[in-house]
Amino acid sequence: MLNQIKTFEGNVLALELTETFTEADAQSIKQLFEEKLANGAAHVNLLIKVKDMSVMKHMDWRAFVDGEVWGFKHFGKIGRCAVVAHSDFIKAAVKIESKVLHLANSAFEERYFDTDQLDEAMAFISAA
């Protein structure tokens, strides 16, 4: 399930994934992202908070893959990305992903934040 944690003016989205990830969730992310671009944002800064790895157990994998394909097509429109979780696996994945994706888009900056650092993550995506 996708929830918007906080509504921002401008180019910032703060979202939380809990329990499941469905096709409707993927469509909501696309819609919110495209609304930011339609309102004049050159890029979108994104915060994704993941409760824990249990979301993977109940994920609609087709929706996930479709969302990833859409994300790669719009990759140049992503500015800062904050991933908030409490998972060593996600932390390691973000570390690797941020280095690899930065090679394709030098403006892209991704960071991992533990769940108790949510305010810092909000400041990170709001700063640019």
Automatic annotation (TrEMBL):
Pfam families, per database record: SpoIIAA-like
Gene3D superfamilies: SpoIIaa-like domains
Domain of life: Bacteria
SUPFAM superfamilies noted in UniProt: SpoIIaa-like
Stated name of the protein: STAS/SEC14 domain-containing protein
Annotated source species: Taibaiella soli
